[in-house]
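To the team - NAP complex, inputs and output below.
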Amino acid sequence: MGVLDGNVAVVAGGTGSVGEGIVRSFLREGAEVVVPCRSEQKRERLVSYVQDVAGDRLHLYPAIVSDEESVRDFRTAVIDNFPRVDLAVASLGGWYYGHSLHRMTFDDWNRVMHDHLTTHFLFLRAFVSLFHDHQNQTGTYVMINGGESKIPAPDSGVVSIAAAAQKMMSKVLAEESSGTNIRSYSISIMNPVKTRNRGGNYLDEWISAEQLGRYLVELQARKVPRTDQVSHILRTVSDLKVAGVAL
Ligand SMILES: NC(=O)c1ccc[n+]([C@@H]2O[C@H](COP(=O)([O-])OP(=O)(O)OC[C@H]3O[C@@H](n4cnc5c(N)ncnc54)[C@H](OP(=O)(O)O)[C@@H]3O)[C@@H](O)[C@H]2O)c1
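Output:
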């Protein structure tokens, strides 16, 4: 028996270096996992990474989360193929290196705001509205971000601005869901994550992408502390041990 047996989870960014670990953990625990995917190469990479745990429970749909029409079509496909969505995770990445705010071009500003904020808005709107439409008004929405939401990143500052706004999105969502069974979480990982694409270049104390996924599984099951709080900050594997997550 898996902790997520019978759950349907949608993971935006599930083809990414953090997202693929989350997908793997959810599959291991029995969930049906739905991932929007915009690249054939990334699709194949994810399928091969999780093939030992997926059974027939990984569902990939061609979709671009940053495009309004594409997200709408993706939402419709999910509604048509699944009875409901229990859990939606946004593990959307990308970075901006280059210029301090006062030298940044308008095009760069707009692009980063679109990729880091508008994309989150589109995904959130699509799936949180489903939670509200559910007869029990239920569902869990999780946004993943990093230390840049708390610590200003010089010459990449726009990423910090967007990440701080992402955290506020989670809080607004929680307020707007009060009186329902809908839960909203912002998970900030303050160190780099141990991902496949790092090869052996990591510190043992860093949390791996799959361990982060396990934390989310326990969060969904309300087995970690502070499940009534929106913001969860994770630094090292010690934090997971303290929270009682099996490593
Ligand atoms: N990696 C770390 O060490 C680390 C540490 C702390 C926190 N985090 C947080 O973890 C989250 C995910 O980061 P990551 O390292 O996994 O990033 P990543 O490897 O770049 O993966 C990001 C994922 O998001 C998708 N994506 C990004 N922008 C998109 C857009 N505009 N439209 C559609 N899809 C888009 C990507 O799709 P494609 O695959 O098609 O590009 C990919 O699946 C971020 O919030 C980051 O701050 C990461």
